[in-house]
Amino acid sequence: MPWLPWEWESLREKAYAKDPKKKNNTTVFGKYLSKMKLKQFKDCGWEDTERLTEEHERAAAAESEAEQALQEMYA
Fold this sequence. Notes:
The chain is mostly helical. Helices cover about 70% and strands about 0% of the residues.
């Protein structure tokens, strides 16, 4: 199973937003394991962590560039 920190953070933030007093990492861990069994991640393993991280970073950079281009067009 790959380690995807952005997925962990997303689940952790949702758990905290739901109830800050009940937030614990055991709940987040269970949800992370469940998420990694979804179709999009089910064939991925630890060895895919680096590739998935690079793809995520490229997508984030492209999104940031597109957002910046829109801001420049409307500025």
